[in-house]
Amino acid sequence: MAQAVAETLHSGHTLVAEAGTGIGKTFAYLVPALLNGGKIIVSTGTKHLQDQLYTKDLPLLIEALNLQIDAVQLKGRSNYLCHYRLKQALQSLPQRGHDDFLLLKHIEAWSERSEIGDRVEFAEIPEEHPIWPRVTSTADNCLGQDCPDYKGCFVARARRLAQEADLVVINHHLFCADLALRETGFGELLPVADGIIIDEAHQLPETAINFFGDTVSSRQLNDLAKDIVSESLKDASDMPALIELADELSLQIKRFRVPLGASGQKAAWVPQLHNSDIQAALDALIATLEEICKALDAAAVRGQGLQTCFRRSAGLLGTLRGMRAPQENHVLWFETSRLGFMLRSTPFDIADLFRRHAEQLQTAWIFTSATLAVEQDFTHFTEQLGLRDYRQGLWPSPFTYENQALLWFPQNLPYPNDPNYTVLVSALALKLIEANSGGTFFLFTSYRALQQAYEFLKTRTSKPLLVQGSDTSKQALIERFRKAGNAVLLATSSFWEGVDVRGEALSCVIIDKLPFAPPGDPVTEARLNALRGAGINPFTHYQLPKAVIALKQGVGRLIRDPSDQGLLVICDPRILSKAYGQRFLQSLPPAATTRDEAVAIEFLESL
To answer: What is the pLDDT of residues 347-384, one digit of tens each?
Structure first.
């Protein structure tokens, strides 16, 4: 694999590479990248993987190869403290209370001694704490080079270092954000590179789709209202109408949320426009933003902050107006939370868009993951990104699954649409949990099924039960699972990948259903309808390959090391009874299989 990466970087072509668990794909692309001599960008699926690559893998290899390489890490602007926003927050302290005052003073003290301003440095405050959005910037509210604190700006410094570095480590969100900005002519955030390496590449199509579109959220609108107030008090205190309009905007945001209905919705937006209450609330929100734009247009000369508020309000107004009617090649949809909402316009196909950007960059591309192929075919992945001329490589895992793992397909379970299915699967899982001296992953395709299984298990086992969705972060849950040694983790899709637990701490993985995307997702439905319109079967062309790759990810949690052993259980009877099940089976590792419960339990007890 390293040889293939080196040849691709040298030739400037494209490589699509699947590297099974245990290949060491990180080293396989980093070694040729470090020896290449040009400028390389490496993009990872998550910030956690980005931190691991930058703090562990790169230093190890640079030392081993005895190289003088300037490698830096670059994150999105929301990860870096903003001096200007911190000062604004401190100035509004009378409204924020004593606890916030103490937090802000701690952050201020840290900002004076920090060289990079990355909030991950400041472990005293959790990443998800609500204080962070008040002291970090977004693309909307950043003042850019006109900021009075630009000279000490942590974001500007990080970008400058990235432009000068030999190797830059980013994540897919930052990478796609820059591609989306390039679409409007402003995306020069990333340095010009001789090679771009996309790790965990199977995540890239979905991440990219989310960036090539428009969003208006209650959070964006509320932040705008707050910033109008603070900027007005600073630079336009003689224009009280601005503060009155900001208060009116806050009111209209609440009024717009009411007719949207229940929390937790994710649905198509256009049908909602037939609701007269929603239509009236949208019109009122747009009218308020129009008034704000007029007032800010007149006030913008007073200060850069007010000018930025004007630009933000104009952008949000344009997007809201676009939500009044269907858009070609885009799906309009919305989400609701308890008090908030998000309206989105999303393209359901980005193949042409991505290919155009890729060709414009004129660089070598390496796309790699442990799960890109379906039955050794990369078409499902490459078509989503519009890739045409590419070399492919597939390196299977070196682990001896036939000796390390047993795969059990339970008998006599009903199909997943049976109302008793989750309880029956949970009862089966309980036997395994009790027989297992190590830890167990119980993976679900829906949060509802997870909750049902938790209710069944919580009074029936003495093993530690860890549940996704509690107040604990994903990494904290995994750390608790590792330390316990015999815990049971109940989790959904985000734990099917990017989780590495080695040894006896994870000896059994139970998967409740084949991971087909749940019905009703508006973006998926639009994509399926487009495929039907083109005369293509959406199930075989899109839904099935996507589920196969997701199952490969879940299965990959079990064996992470040459000495690992464990039992893998796929409960869904469709994998054996349906014709399409063969495509799943052919993508599974070559482990021994059984249908006998006694054999499965005996294997687990023997570990």
So the answer is: 988 999 899 888 888 899 999 999 999 989 999 999 99
- Express each pLDDT in 282-328 by its tens digit: 999 999 999 999 999 999 999 989 999 999 999 999 999 999 988 88
Q: What is the pTM of this model?
A: 0.89
Q: How many residues does the chain have?
A: 607
Q: Quick check: is 157 in a domain?
A: no
Q: What is the DSSP letter of 486?
A: S
Which pLDDT belongs to residue 188?
60
d(CA 216, CA 230): 21
List Cα–Cα distances, 323 to 214, 236, 345, in angstroms: 10, 32, 8
Token readout for 326 is 């269907």
Name 452's Cβ contacts closer than 8 Å, sequence gap at least 6. Answer: 422, 423, 426
3-state helix, strand, coil split of the chain in percent (to 5) is: 55, 15, 30
Q: Which helix (H) or strand (E) holds 467?
A: strand 465-467
Side-chain-side CA neighbours of 245 within 13 Å: the count stands at 23
Amino acid in the structure at residue 350: I
Phi and psi torsions of 204, nearest 5°: -65, -45
Residue (of 10, 23, 40) closest to 368 by Cα position:
23
Domain at 540, CATH number: 3.40.50.300
- Are 145 and 178 part of one and the same domain? no
Cα–Cα distance, 429 to 442 (Å, whole number): 8
475 lies in the same domain as 565: yes
- The amino acid that residue 24 corresponds to is G
As beta bridge partners, residue 489 has 441, 466
Any alpha helices (H) in 323-457, and if so which ranges?
Answer: 351-361, 379-385, 401-404, 421-435, 447-457
* Triad 449, 453, 457: Cα angle to 5°: 175
Q: What are phi and psi of 489, to 5 degrees?
A: -105, 120
Give the range of the structural domain holding residue 25, as residue numbers without chain letter: 2-70+165-212+350-395
Asked if residue 327 and residue 369 are part of one domain, the reply reads no
Please report, as a single letter, which amino acid is at residue 13: H
Q: Are 582 and 413 in contact (CB under 8 A)?
A: no
Q: Residue 150 CB: number of other CB atoms within 10 A?
A: 15
**110 and 29 share a domain?**
no
Mean pLDDT of the chain: 92
d(CA 119, CA 127): 8
CA nearest neighbour of 47 among 104, 96, 113, 119: 119
Q: Please state, in angstroms and as integers, the Cα–Cα distance from residue 529 to each residue in 109, 118, 329, 354, following that order.
A: 55, 43, 11, 21
Structural domains counted in the chain: 4
Least confident of 60-69, 173-182, 268-277: 173-182
pLDDT of residue 185: 45
pLDDT, tens only, 401-458:
999 999 999 999 999 999 999 999 999 999 999 999 999 999 999 999 999 999 999 9
Tokens of 541: 């062309």
Report pLDDT for 211: 84
At position 164, the amino acid (one-letter code) is E
Name 536's Cβ contacts closer than 8 Å, sequence gap at least 6.
none
pLDDT in tens, 177-213: 877 665 544 456 555 789 999 999 999 999 998 888 8
